[in-house]
Amino acid sequence: MKAKKSYGQHFLTSEEIARQISQALQAENEYNKVLEIGPGQGMLTKYLLQKDYELLVVEADDDMVFYLKKHFPKLKGQIINADFLKVDLNLFIKNEPFAIIGNFPYNISSQILFKMLEYKAQVPELVGMFQKEMADRVISGPGSRTYGVISVLVQAFYEGELILDVDKRFFNPQPKVQSAVIRLTRKENQKLDCNEKLFRIVVKQAFSQRRKMLRNTMKAFIKGDELLEKGFFTKRPEQLSVEDFVQLTNWVDERIN
């Protein structure tokens, strides 16, 4: 079966890499539900089926769903034929913890992470294949040129680590970019010490002009305030940790309220 550009499909061809990805999930004793996104022809799925998981797979491509049903009879009743971004997961997983895993379509990988954050109370872990550039952005720390909005929003709730880099030759068709597998493990504290909705707004505003100091970008919230004269506001957004953004959010919250 041929990959479809409309679904961003690049099929993993390495058995060893698929095995390593399946083994990267850690907390097997804490939950047994695992959700695989975009299984395609089941290269990773077959390794997950060997484990003691209650596996669900989400696949939007009707042809791939047909293929999975034919070649993996164990998946009967466990295939969600839908666009992951549009699925209400509560219809299939009733307020229970579950891990997310997959060789993610690169064109929607950031949206997958944002949806994960919506379900963070239920998702203790994610293991995923990303475009290398995106993987670096997700797990990079303050001071890195790749540190940005998605870095802060994900790291507010998850610890990230690189599992392995994957060369483009291990895919069919070959993508134009290199890839990497990362693991995200949820932090014990699932709540920030600030207004979380405002936190997201402040982070996005700060990085909207990442080369400018905070005293310029934060004028949208606290214009003319002596607070802007603090040394803190001479920093640029990539210099701020998650904790710094929490503090900044609280300052903004005090001013606008």
Describe the 3D structure.
The protein has about 260 residues and is α/β, with parallel strands linked by helices. The protein is about 30% helix and about 20% strand. It has two domains: about 5-185, Vaccinia Virus protein VP39 (Rossmann fold); about 195-255, Helicase, Ruva Protein, domain 3 (Orthogonal Bundle), CATH 1.10.8.100. The chain contains ten helices and nine strands. Helix 4 links the parallel strand 5 (about 100-105) and strand 6 (about 125-130). The longest helix is centred in the last third of the chain and has 15 residues, at about 240-255.
Brief characterization of the structure:
By secondary structure, this protein is an alpha/beta fold.
CATH architecture title of the largest domain: 3-Layer(aba) Sandwich
Low-confidence stretches at least 5 residues in length (pLDDT < 50)? Answer: none
The rough form would be described as elongated
So, the CATH homologous superfamily of the largest domain? Vaccinia Virus protein VP39
CATH T-level topology of the largest domain: Rossmann fold
Q: What average pLDDT do the residues reach?
A: 92
Report the sheet-strand fraction: 15-25%
Strand order of the largest sheet: 4-3-2-5-6-9-7
Run of helices and strands: EHEHEHEEHEHHEEEHHHH
Distance between the termini: 57 Å
Number of discrete helical segments: 10
